[in-house]
Amino acid sequence: MKKLLITAALIFFSFSVICAEEIKFSADSMTGTAGSKTDTTVLSGEASVQTDSMEIKADSIELSGEDFRYITAEGNVSGSLTESQMDFTCGKLTYDRKTEIARLEDSVHLVDKANDVTANAQFIEYNQKKETAVMQIEITLKQKDNTCTSAFAIYKKSEQLLEMSGNPKIIQGEDSFRAQEITLNLDSQEITLDGRVRGTVTDSKKEKKEETLSPEETQTQETTGNPENPGTPPDEEPQNNMNGGQ
Q1: Sign of the CA dihedral with 56 first, then 85, 173, and 134 last
Q2: Rounded to a whole number, what is the distance in angstroms from the first to the last CA of the chain?
Q3: Rounded distance, CA 79 to CA 70, Å?
Q4: Which helix (H) or strand (E) holds 219?
Q5: Using CA of residue 157, residue 159, residue 161, residue 165, what is the dihedral sign?
Q6: How confident is the model over 85-138, as pLDDT tens digits?
């Protein structure tokens, strides 16, 4: 087993692995071991790794496994899934370059830039091949006028479908919907509720409407004056002829 220790103000390096994917990385310091079947490299201090499908920045990043198959990042993790156009921040991330599955933990914030969808959860597993995000614990997903909350959810990016369970709730403007299971089509905004359905909706017909006069109506009101005696100036009382015209 060969040991490697490199410390510098900044390290920038790139290499190609057997699967022909180039990995670029940089950090303040690097330690590692290399063997015939396993390789391990730890990047510390403003660490960053870039592959064909992902960019990651963190306090520390570990590359391990054969051909550096696994990437583990911890501390102020941020980056993007470039193929899926997804940005993220979290406390910890693990990524399998072979299966293209990323697991994000600890205050996860995920943004689907292409569809203007944002999601927060404590755990999100994203499969790049299937374009599917499995979310768990304290989930809040926002899109257009929708605010969706639940304990468990599956976001299908390519189909623009959100499936929720675990006390799910959707708020659309002033309307709210609850059920045991909820499916939301993010394109059509169609909601499917199943099991113990309940909610509230606002009847727009009962809302108070403010009456607005058109410019023509305003001009007419100003020229007619007293509504009981058209043609009389607004503040002038009509005079009664008490003397019979004398």
Answers
A1: negative
A2: 129
A3: 16
A4: helix 215-224
A5: negative
A6: 999 999 999 999 999 999 999 999 999 999 999 999 999 999 999 999 999 999
